[in-house]
Amino acid sequence: MADDAFTEHRPLLFTIAYEMLGSAADAEDVLQESYLRWSAVDPGTVEHPRAYLVRVVTRQALNHLRTVKARREDYVGPWLPEPIRTTSDVNDDAILAESVSMAMMLVLETLNPTERAVFVLHDVFGYTHGEIAASVGKTEVTVRQIAHRARKHVHARRRRFEPDSDATRAIVQRFLLAATTGEIQALMDLLAPDVVEISDGGGKASAARRPITGREDVARFTLGVARTTITATTRVEHATYNGMPAALCHTDGELDWLLAFEIHDGRITGLYAMRNPDKLHRARTVRPLDRGENQPWKP
């Protein structure tokens, strides 16, 4: 019975943990810790298992987030959320798709742990301030203030977002063709004037040590990367990551990099290049996500 309940709600629990932590590995650790706590409880005493599990995962993720914050301060080069391969149905939920996008996840990184937990639970998953209060150890009034502050912060920094679609994938195809054929003008025509490219090598793979901004600089950087990494044995695979169109570059059978595309109004506004082998190692796993339907938080 306990296993069945946890398995049933696992996609929702993983989604909450991932959005709070930005790491699939850390989210899995939180789920494991939460499962151990859940298995020690008599399910017959829990009126709403999903609400109970959400509360447990929230508390565990919040504790975990406070520890990983310090670890990320020592990260070599730009840090990107661990990319997750998402299923097509994620794009049917606009709020969910945007909430796991690379741009939004980076904005969430600028919140403190409590702000992030409150924003994710309230604005993404629809829980009330009162329901959230017990999980974050604050009063309802304080949670309401935190939610207002976090929402204002996020909305001031959020980028325009369009989920993966046939139209966005066509733009990715044109981008890859221009990159491999060295057509810089064709590349620039696909990029927004304020496009930003962020590369994450984690100090373990070659990557730009700072974000690259502007159409011309991004185009030239892209061509440079293409010349040095794309060979006769390179295979490119198209997929959806974090609700965004993405290209996976395999060299000699190994996943060498993953490039996720942020596209709006027919132009590429953001490029997120993952080269950290630790994160790429886990990127092959498909992650079912779920926003669920809100329930009371009764234990």
TrEMBL record:
Keywords: Sigma factor, Transcription, Transcription regulation. Signal peptide: none annotated. Belongs to the sigma-70 factor family. ECF subfamily. It comes from Streptomyces rectiviolaceus. Interacts transiently with the RNA polymerase catalytic core formed by RpoA, RpoB, RpoC and RpoZ (2 alpha, 1 beta, 1 beta' and 1 omega subunit) to form the RNA polymerase holoenzyme that can initiate transcription. This is RNA polymerase sigma-70 factor. Residues 6-67 form the RNA polymerase sigma-70 region domain. The keyword GTP-binding does not apply. InterPro entries: ECF_Sigma-70_Domain, NTF2-like_dom_sf, RNA_pol_sigma-70_dom, RNA_pol_sigma-70_ECF, RNA_pol_sigma70_r2, RNA_pol_sigma70_r4_t2, RNA_pol_sigma_r2, RNA_pol_sigma_r3/r4-like. Gene3D superfamilies: 1.10.1740.10, 3.10.450.50, Winged helix-like DNA-binding domain superfamily/Winged helix DNA-binding domain (1.10.10.10). The keyword Transcription applies. Coiled coil: none annotated. Residues 102-153 form the RNA polymerase sigma factor 70 region 4 type domain.
